[in-house]
Specification:
By secondary structure, the protein is of the alpha+beta class. It is built from 24 helices and 19 strands. 33% of the residues lie in helices and 14% in strands.
């Protein structure tokens, strides 16, 4: 058992309001530079939608992530042989139109134009060429309901949705949608690291953050192809690849990453997980139906004595172990089983987990006609100014999951490699928490119904209260449990004499030549 520590994250999708504050915070700090204008290390997509870059989930186009052949995993669009063939021409790279051509406006034309009969305008100009352009795409072009017929219907996850389900989803008044914020997943089995011919991309031993060494990068851009989430970008000005660094300078100072610190909806959680590095290949090579379970199995119990002993033998500090025990990520992912990885079928073992959305709770709630004899029988809805009021009684709100939720097949395509039973179990727990809290706060649900719902979901009242507290009432230090950086160990790890060291510390046992 090779125990290592990993910074991991959970995003609660029922709490995201789509304000893009996280994206702007990241943009202002990291990608407000020439050549990085089109980069959004953090972006928020509306689902259903094609996302950014367009159709990034369709690996038939981009050949990202890992495939499986003869029981072993292999890179779909990179690797030694394929990388050598495509090293000077890579047909699977997204082009600028798949993102968008960054632009600004000639604002001076508004104030410096001479007097005339026409209203002056500020023409859009490309930030790459400096020439006027016609804007055809932007970083959140299909945000909310924008472009629904053209974008949402082309979502790669819609292929499993029946035409009838799609018609219900795309009625404007009943449009079922949610927000999907995305950053680099800092995976346990990162395809970008495996694909880089220069060895410029590496995974930090102390916390698992995936970084790109700008001095070593030679702009082969295999990382852009290999990352199935398209979170590695090419800077056209510097000729180097760049990606989210999880604000590691802030983490080393005990601060939350900028996107998480600024999150208005407080949907983001960060903490430490312990995992068994010896089982990474086994977990990534599992069958599609077993990918979720295999990834969860390599995440270790930080309270287990054997795990603690192995972790200490591997150089993991006591402060990191304490952080792992207090980690909100471990609770959401392992203890409660609420958070799932995005597209586990990519086999990168992402360390960003999502709590699937339970909303909208009234997407298909029926209307009730109470102008007939029903008025005499304690009606549940009334007619007001010829408009029907929806039935919002408790029994109707807590109807069958399949009837009043987002299409199950769609959510399963995103978070469980198509396994609908996994999503059902998560939804049952989320619904059970709501029903239990409704009993506590409103009191219109019987104890029998609430207890039965909790029992069917496999949780108890104490766990439901804990889930509610960490979801709705957490303090800052409960959402972000950041371990001490221990930079003194990193300094000791470096050998400027050029001698070969037997271990690099932080659990990475490798023979590495470290020169000046």
């Amino acid at each position: 058992m090779d125990v290592r520590s990993q910074i991991a994250m959970v995003f609660h999708l029922d709490k995201c309001i789509g304000c893009h504050t996280c994206s702007i915070a990241c943009k202002n700090i990291w990608t407000d530079r020439k050549g990085a204008e089109y980069m959004w290390w953090n972006n928020v997509e509306t689902k259903p939608g094609t996302g950014y870059p367009s159709k990034w989930e369709d690996q038939e186009i981009y050949k990202g992530g890992w495939g499986k052949r003869n029981g072993k995993i292999h890179l779909k669009g990179a690797g030694k042989r394929r990388g050598l063939v495509n090293i000077f021409y890579n047909p699977n790279l997204p082009v600028i139109d798949d993102y968008y051509e960054p632009f600004t406006y000639k604002y001076l034309d508004l104030i410096e134009s001479p007097q005339g009969d026409d209203q002056p305008t500020a023409r859009p100009v490309s930030l790459i060429t400096g020439k006027p352009i016609d804007i055809k795409m932007g970083p959140n072009w299909d945000d909310d309901l924008g472009g629904t017929p053209d974008y949402a219907r082309n979502d790669p996850n819609m292929k499993n949705i029946t035409p009838e389900e799609q018609e219900v989803m795309f009625q404007l008044e009943k449009m079922a949608m949610f927000y999907l914020p995305r950053i680099c997943n800092h995976c346990l089995n990162p395809a970008c690291v495996a694909s880089c011919p220069s060895g410029a991309i590496y995974k930090r031993g102390e916390d698992g953050i995936v970084l790109i060494n700008q001095q070593v990068c030679r702009a082969w851009r295999m990382c852009v192809t290999a990352c199935p989430y398209k979170k590695s970008y090419f800077n056209w000005h510097t000729g180097k690849s760049e990606k989210c660094i999880l604000c590691y300078p802030r983490l080393e100072a005990g601060l939350a990453p900028a996107c998480m610190h600024s999150c208005v909806g407080r949907i983001r959680y960060l903490g430490v997980l312990l995992y068994d590095a010896d089982r990474i290949e086994e977990a990534a090579s599992a069958d599609d139906k077993d990918l979720i379970k295999s990834q969860m199995d390599i995440i270790l119990d930080p309270f287990d004595e054997d795990v603690i002993k192995a972790a200490k033998e591997n150089g993991i500090a006591d402060s990191t172990l304490h952080a792992a025990q207090a980690s909100p990520i471990y609770k959401f992912v392992k203890q409660w089983g609420l958070a799932l990885p995005l597209h586990p079928e990519f086999r990168t073992l992402p360390m960003l987990f999502y709590i699937p959305p339970l909303l909208p709770v009234m997407a298909s709630v029926k209307k009730v006609d109470n102008t007939t004899e029903a008025d005499k029988k304690a009606p549940l809805a009334k007619k007001w100014n010829n408009d029907w009021i929806y039935d919002t009684s408790t029994e109707e709100l807590w109807g069958k999951l399949e009837q009043i939720r987002f299409p199950l097949k769609y959510i399963a395509s995103l978070f469980s490699a198509g396994d609908e039973d996994v999503i059902k179990e998560v939804w049952k727990k989320l619904m059970a928490v709501r029903i239990h809290r409704r009993r506590v706060t409103v009191g219109d649900i019987t104890n029998e119904k609430a207890d039965n719902t909790l029992s069917e979901a496999g949780i108890n009242a104490e766990m439901a209260d804990a889930i509610y507290a960490l979801t709705s009432l957490p303090k800052f230090e409960e959402r972000f449990v950041i371990p001490a950086a221990h930079r003194e160990q990193a300094i000791e790890m470096m050998d400027f004499t050029g001698d070969t060291k037997g271990a690099t510390g932080f659990g990475f046992k490798s023979k590495v030549k470290r020169g000046v």
